[in-house]
């Protein structure tokens, strides 16, 4: 009898019921971050409430399309792993500067389109750099990604950055309650329910939040049922050299961050990322960023918070994330649905975020466990890279006196730590030994750190 080859967990298609539940869990995990970028940029430019709403629905629509391109893929676009896409925070400061002093939204969109084309063209070059990401570097970067996200969960748990009651005990109590629900479901519930522990925690948290006055559904009734983003809604893009230059720096930062995220998901799903697949994933980022400039939104990258969800739930199917992408498209076309999701209070997301982001950090430690730390300087590589990566997280204004391009690169703890890890790995593990230094403990040790 003929036997069919086993399907890799990444390519498995779960039943529709599970697709919907797992996919919704991914949407809820990234929704707050997805809408934050258009809110910040639009508010800084003092756009009207109607224009802000338009930016958000356009963003959700392209988030969904970008996610489908990345995880389903076509031709040489898409890494075909469970990767959610969203607007990158690395572009926020440059876009605010361009929008307020350098030509408004048309200038932003012109620079975003050029940056997207640059990412697509540079993708094969970045793909060849994969040999500079051994377990020593990837484990360090994944650890930095997780730890740098924890303050985001902390801000959510306290009520959301800038909230009137920020830090009130009731906010932290709600976040702690959601955390306990997630842990309880994961530990004691049947296998299927344990895999949607985050979704159950958010739903239960929302049910508790409503009677205690954490949120209300008043804005849902005001939202439109249908909203379609049309190309160049805010005018024909304009192209300014200074705006393009700053956005090209952002492009390099997001490519570095995406590389770390793709490698992390490859580790979690047991489908290692290779130079060609890395290039395909980065090329998808470039295409999505071009679409962002055309459809009134911003540059796109892999979302690290969803990387943590993959690791926590151990659901590796890319079709789950494809279902989440379809849901985001619906949210972008049906603003009323988006308004329903938007009423979830920040503390509810914070309780779930603590688990997800902590899982990313723990995955980094798991990868570092493969590295040999005896008779070499690998511990120094990890120590300094984590320190540099955490510096802008712990002291956000540390580089305030530096040029804008430097701030764009170094204010992202992920890109700062990643670049440091790559350079230190080359310095300690690839350059010739200094004169008179003792030999490495064993040749295989060095191979484990640099292969």
Protein architecture, described:
The structure is a single chain. The protein is mainly α and 451 residues long. 68% of the residues lie in helices and 1% in strands. It has 19 helices and two strands. The protein has a two-stranded antiparallel sheet. Helix 1 (16-44) crosses helix 2 (49-71) and helix 10 (241-269) crosses helix 11 (275-294). The longest helix is centred in the N-terminal third of the chain and has 29 residues, at 16-44. Mean pLDDT is 82; it is low at 441-451.
Topology:
Layout: H1 16-44, H2 49-71, E1 85-87, H3 92-101, H4 104-127, H5 135-157, H6 169-188, H7 191-195, H8 197-209, H9 218-222, H10 241-269, H11 275-294, E2 300-302, H12 304-313, H13 318-333, H14 335-342, H15 346-368, H16 378-394, H17 404-410, H18 413-429, H19 443-450
Antiparallel strand pairs: 1-2
Question: Which structural class do you get from the secondary structure elements?
Answer: mainly alpha
Main sheet properties? 2 strands, antiparallel
Q: Which sequence of strands runs across the widest sheet?
A: 1-2
- N-C termini distance: 42 Å
Mean pLDDT: 82
H/E topology pattern: HHEHHHHHHHHHEHHHHHHHH
Share of helical residues: 55-70%
Number of helices: 19
Radius of gyration: 22 Å
Which stretches are poorly predicted, pLDDT < 50 over at least 5 residues?
441-451
Strand content of the residues, in percent? under 5%
Number of strands: 2
Shape field = globular
